[in-house]
Amino acid sequence: MARPADLVHSVIKAYDVRGVVGEQIDEDFVADVGAAFARLVRGEGVSQRVVVGHDMRDSSPALSSAFARGVTSQGLDVVLIGLASTDQLYFASGRLDCPGAMFTASHNPAKYNGIKLCRAGAKPVGQDSGLATISAEIIDGVPTFDGAPGSISEQDVLEDYATFVRDLVDISGIRPLSVAVDAGNGMGGHTVPAVLDPTSVTVHPLYFELDGTFPNHEANPLEPANLVDLQKFVTETGADIGLAFDGDADRCFVVDERGEPVSPSAITALVAERELGKHPSSAIIHNLITSRSVPELVEQLGGTAVRTRVGHSFIKALMAETGAVFGGEHSAHYYFRDFWGADSGMLAALHVLAALGTQNEPLSALMRKYEVYAASGEINSTVADARERTAAVVAAFADRTVSTDELDGVTVDLGDSAWFNLRASNTEPLLRLNVEARTPEDVDRLTTEILSIVRA
């Protein structure tokens, strides 16, 4: 049946499908998404089946089943893999060479759910690569299919996924490590026990119980408040390292042995160095919010640093276009050529464990090489007119500006390694600020000055 355009556009966003269950999305709606997605991929003639996984949210099993019904109504088969992390679903899409759908709302609160869609080989589906077509069909009403319906089967891929990522990053020979892991009641509680070999590391689990109501804290480690429990847990257990996964476990955040957070930019630099060691002269992708220490290190090591705008669909497309061996974002998404160009928090974690476990220094000492500059982190401000506020900031800094670019929002280079970026949210009345400079004092000074204009 046809659906209101405003509802469809509010739920089918730039990179995925996401909304409040029972208000914006329900079983009938996701069945329509499944049917429209099946028509999209069937028309491309690539595969006759779709793999479907889901997270631990209460609504996920029913929604994923409804999606499967939509897919089979268009004559394609469905392989259900059940509980999965998002990177486990990407693995299944790559290994089975078929399109996929992951039911998750990632780090969003319990009342939300959504779908991350990909083509065969974990290739991204965004607005310009399929979501707009799906939206249009749902608004108009998905046509019926006259042929025979597809079938539904089940397949457990967890152990195959675990073996695959362990083979990509072997930690079997590292020194014994004590690892504190906060799964945030999300899918890390499902995948970490399968991947981390107890003969190599001792895991101290925190919030491993799968619970889509997130009773302990939001499963969004990008917010400092959600790292507090892990920071305390690391020092209490005397762990060598702490790992925090988001709700669907495609992102991984790192805490050192002192309980201090390690920036995703520093992790990007560490992994880039390791990947360039295996694949010399390769391209490494970083988004424009990532610390400039990343491209500087990549160039020093003889690699090619490729700068891109924020967003996984942009990075995945650029991974394919450039043949880049690795890509990293400030939000702790890490992309690997050996993982079909898709992101995997688990692979990033294994790289850090391998780097830490093959030398004797603590993590804090190891990371000094990669944490060159100070940064503000992303600061959001609610504004009525993001364009006007951005222009006001740019004007205020005009006499100190070395250069500007508009790859994503506005990036202002102030020289002497100081820069800031202002970019508007695609979905909310927010202006996002990131600042980097040589010292924390410089960052604080610039941040205060910029926010005084943004929030005036």
Automatic annotation (TrEMBL):
Q: Which SUPFAM superfamilies match?
A: Phosphoglucomutase, C-terminal domain, Phosphoglucomutase, first 3 domains
Q: Do you know which Gene3D superfamilies this protein is assigned to?
A: Alpha-D-Glucose-1,6-Bisphosphate, subunit A, domain 3, Alpha-D-phosphohexomutase, C-terminal domain
Which InterPro entries does the entry link to?
A-D-PHexomutase_a/b/a-I, A-D-PHexomutase_a/b/a-I/II/III, A-D-PHexomutase_a/b/a-II, A-D-PHexomutase_a/b/a-III, A-D-PHexomutase_C, A-D-PHexomutase_C_sf, Alpha-D-phosphohexomutase_SF
List residues of the Alpha-D-phosphohexomutase C-terminal domain. 378-451
What EC number(s) is this enzyme filed under? 5.4.2.8
Q: Does the keyword Cell membrane apply?
A: no
GO MF term (any one): phosphomannomutase activity
CDD domains, alphabetized: PMM_PGM
* Pfam family membership, one: PGM_PMM_I
User: Which protein family is it in?
Assistant: Belongs to the phosphohexose mutase family.
Q: What is this protein called?
A: Phosphomannomutase
